[in-house]
Amino acid sequence: MGELVVIRHGQTEWSLSGQHAGRTDVALTAAGEAAASALAPRLAHRRLVAVFSSPLSRALRTAELAGLSSATPDPDLLEWDYGGYEGLTAGQIRASRPDWDLWRDGVVPGDADHPGERLAQVAARTDAVLDRIRPLLSDGDVAVVAHGHLARILTVRWLGLDASASRLLGHPHPGTLSVLATEDGQPVVSAWNVP
């Protein structure tokens, strides 16, 4: 049985500042490009039977630099649509909502380009991704290049947990990979947040 390699895109100006970058297409920084390139040797030994990526340029560029130029864009791997919180930091949101918690409270609607999503909607997208990937794992490893919150939700759904359990995982750093596998027939996280 193959493993699912989950890669968070490299650093962007917004990930550096802590801004919520859902659907805004923010480019990689030079450090983000370097981190993405540094993933290539870790991935080179894997027998990848498929590679999927968020269609945003920060993910596609990470895939390219990591040696995964064959990545197929998949809109289900887009980051959480943060709605009215797009571009804001958690501190800015908490200035008006002191007890705000993304996993409990979600987001508020935004404009036409950022209408916002409920956690259940993001989980449904990750479930669809996993439904497409699981059959491929019998032939080898699969890699996905995505985003921080999306990676956390994908991981807990891999484990069969409710999407709200994502709060229990640390935020993967930009330009890192995590590995989802099975052990004795049970889904496990075999690596998390590896540079």
Fold and architecture overview:
The chain has 195 residues and is of the alpha/beta class. It contains 7 helices and 6 strands; from the N terminus they run E-H-H-E-H-E-H-H-H-E-H-E-E. It has a 6-stranded mixed beta sheet with strand order 3-2-4-1-5-6. The mean pLDDT is 97.
Give the percentage of residues in beta strands: 15-25%
Sheet with most strands:
6 strands, mixed
Distance between the termini: 24 Å
Query: What would you call the structural class?
Result: alpha/beta
Q: Tell me how many strands there are.
A: 6
Strand order, largest beta sheet: 3-2-4-1-5-6
The total of helices stands at 7
Order of helices and strands: EHHEHEHHHEHEE
Low-confidence stretches: none
Helix content: 25-40%
Overall mean confidence score, pLDDT: 97
Radius of gyration from CA coordinates: 16 Å
Shape: globular
Q: Would you kindly provide a brief summary of this structure?
A:
With 195 residues, this protein is of the alpha/beta class.
Notable characteristics:
195 residues, six-stranded mixed β-sheet, 34% helix, globular
Write the layout of secondary structure elements.
Elements: E1 4-8, H1 13-17, H2 30-44, E2 48-53, H3 57-65, E3 72-73, H4 90-96, H5 102-105, H6 119-133, E4 141-146, H7 148-158, E5 177-183, E6 186-194
Parallel strand pairs: 1-4, 2-3, 2-4
Antiparallel strand pairs: 1-5, 5-6
Helix pairs in contact: 2-3, 6-7
